[in-house]
Design goal:
Layout: H1 3-11, H2 17-20, E1 27-33, E2 36-41, E3 51-55, E4 60-63, H3 69-82, E5 87-91, H4 97-100, H5 103-108, E6 112-116, H6 117-122, H7 127-131, H8 137-144, E7 151-153, E8 157-161, E9 164-171, E10 178-183, E11 188-196, H9 208-219, E12 226-231, H10 237-259, H11 264-279, H12 285-300
Parallel strand pairs: 4-5, 5-6, 6-7, 11-12
Antiparallel strand pairs: 1-2, 2-3, 3-4, 8-9, 9-10, 10-11
Bound molecules: zinc ion.
Residues 94, 96, 174, 193, 202, 230 line the site of zinc ion.
């Protein structure tokens, strides 16, 4: 509609001003480099996680697809608003449904789904485990129908968007099938759930020893100035250091209580106050922290459950 016609429509009351405004996005879109965008989940968690995208010379690469398909569609709308180039890839940082829920929508929009080799074996089976008793038949059905990736790797992979280079790198710690996405010319790293910025992490599938090593390496990575975490706002190296500190405190507190002879629920009760004193201001602390203490206890006891890679 031309400006003149729009003005006329408004003057005639046919098109109220409010209707002109685009609906609020379920995420905040932030430019973090030339043609590089972070989509940070809204305060109510409407999207389910963070995502982002890279506009290259001949196409667009998306990182993660959110939990809610409505958010994925809104992301596609934003991409089309910024560039006429086609969406060519979506890279999943890991199998969790809050990062893969919109894959089918992106495939429909033209994307090839790229994932860690282990993700393909887990995306339709392990996701139910995340919800425990809260899983419903409808959610089970949704999980069983999640898109399977088209391209899988357990080695570093370079994707060229024309002359623009994007590096996909396996990383250890969160699930056993994680990828980070680096945009070298913009000094950006999409860290997936290897990084949570001031948000307590979900370590249900994690290995904290591996995770601390990964976070330390990220925090000292001279090639990166902006990190896009899986949850929480765009981060700096100092934020990554804080996150590594959170994991170290978790491990130290649990080790201390184990040394005192505690385990299980008694350990969680004993360790929680000091953990809260250190990190109680982190988002979702009340929900995740008790679980984290239990998972950490399992890890130090050598009985932590993790997803097991399945054959192809
Ligand atoms: Zn996750």
């Amino acid at each position: 509609m031309s400006g003149a016609i729009a003005a006329l429509a408004i003057a005639l009351g046919a098109w109220p001003l409010a209707a002109q405004q685009a609906p609020a996005l379920p995420f905040a879109l932030k430019a973090i480099g030339p043609g590089v965008y972070a989509a940070i989940d809204g305060p109510k968690g409407e999207a389910g996680s963070n995502a982002g995208f890279v506009i290259g010379d001949d196409g667009v690469l998306v990182v993660d697809s959110f939990y809610n398909e409505a958010a994925t569609k809104a992301l596609i709308g934003e991409i089309h608003r910024l560039t006429p180039l086609p969406i060519r890839y979506v890279v999943n940082t890991h199998y969790h449904i809050d990062h893969t829920g919109g894959d089918a929508v992106l495939r429909e929009a033209g994307a090839i789904i790229v994932a860690h080799k282990n993700e393909r074996g887990w995306v339709r089976t392990e996701n139910a485990h995340l919800f425990g008793e809260r899983v419903t038949p409808a959610l089970q059905a949704r999980i069983a129908a999640l898109a399977l990736p088209d391209v899988t790797t357990d080695a570093p992979l370079t994707i060229w968007l024309g002359q623009r280079k994007v590096e996909v790198q396996p990383v250890l710690g969160h699930t056993g099938g994680d990828l980070a996405v680096r945009v070298p010319d913009a000094h950006v790293l999409f860290a997936g759930d290897l990084l949570w910025r001031h948000v307590s992490p979900n370590i249900i599938d994690g290995n904290v020893a591996e995770w601390i090593a990964t976070a330390d390496a990220m925090a000292t990575d001279a090639g990166v100035t902006s990190f896009v975490p899986g949850h929480g706002d765009v981060a700096t190296a100092a934020d990554v250091k804080d996150f590594a500190g959170y994991l170290r405190d978790l491990r130290a507190l649990v080790a201390k209580e184990r040394k005192a002879g505690l385990s299980g629920a008694a350990l969680v009760t004993a360790a929680l106050p000091e953990f809260k004193q250190k990190h109680g201001d982190w988002e979702a602390f009340g929900y995740f922290a008790p679980k984290e203490l239990g998972f950490m206890d399992d890890e130090l006891a050598g009985k932590k459950r993790r997803p097991v890679p399945v054959g192809e």
